[in-house]
Design a protein that fits this description.
The protein is an alpha+beta fold and about 220 residues long. The protein has 4 helices and 12 strands, in the order H-E-H-E-E-E-E-H-E-E-H-E-E-E-E-E.
Length: about 220
């Protein structure tokens, strides 16, 4: 065999070894890429599931909104669903170290916020109330569904009033880890038909929305 043939054969054999190594390397990178992609997908799915458990399905919130903002959001094509909560500003439930806000809420907000009714239903009549389970334990631990309970109300002018309500439902403690700045989130809910002894027209409108094509992993809230 000539010297040139030996050199050519050696070169071809060397290239074959390099090609095999390159092929093996590419296969390893491909498998590694699949593992990383699967891990990232699983991690994102886990984060989304945990986020949904904690916060619900909303992806944005507006605290201290107005009717004009509500109308705009309802007409905005990129908004898939909108839940509304009206938090009363000029009174709160107060007794000792207990302090909780009262609000009205619509069904869409209940769904978006995963506000689970453990017993009963949302109030529909005057003097019906839903309390979250922690607040109920502290105010009326022995109360049962349909019982009349006394709710201590502290008005913004400093006066106290014991109001009588019928317990229509018990709700999970739904918002304990939610970001809300200085805006309070309620632990008690009354119906839109509720009439108080004093003017209760001072309310903060909270709007919670789910955008189209959005995940629930990241959330944004805006305060006005």
């Amino acid at each position: 065999m000539s010297m040139n043939s030996k050199i050519a054969r050696s070169f071809i054999q060397g290239n074959q070894k390099q090609n095999r190594l390159l092929y093996i390397g590419l296969c390893v990178l491909f498998v590694f890429g699949i593992v990383i992609f699967s891990f990232q997908g699983s991690l994102m799915k886990y984060q989304q599931e945990e986020s949904f458990k904690e916060y619900g399905a909303w992806s944005g919130a507006v605290y201290g909104g107005t009717k004009e903002i509500e109308t705009f959001l309802k007409n905005e094509k990129s908004v898939e669903s909108l839940g509304t909560m009206r938090v009363f500003e000029n009174f709160s439930i107060s007794s000792g170290d207990i302090s909780a806000y009262v609000a009205t809420v619509d069904q869409e907000m209940v769904k978006l916020g995963r506000m689970e009714m453990l017993k009963g239903a949302l109030p529909k009549k005057n003097h019906e109330i839903v309390l979250d389970q922690q607040l109920l334990k502290r105010i009326a631990p022995d109360a049962k569904m349909g019982d009349q309970i006394t709710i201590p109300i502290l008005w913004s002018d400093g006066t106290m009033e014991n109001c009588q309500f019928v317990l229509s439902g018990i709700m999970n403690t739904w918002s304990k880890n939610w970001s809300r700045g200085s805006y309070p989130l309620p632990a008690a809910f009354v119906s839109d038909q509720q009439v108080f002894s004093k003017n209760s027209s001072q309310v903060n409108h909270y709007f919670f929305l789910r955008m189209k094509r959005s995940t629930t992993q990241f959330r944004t809230w805006i305060a006005f």
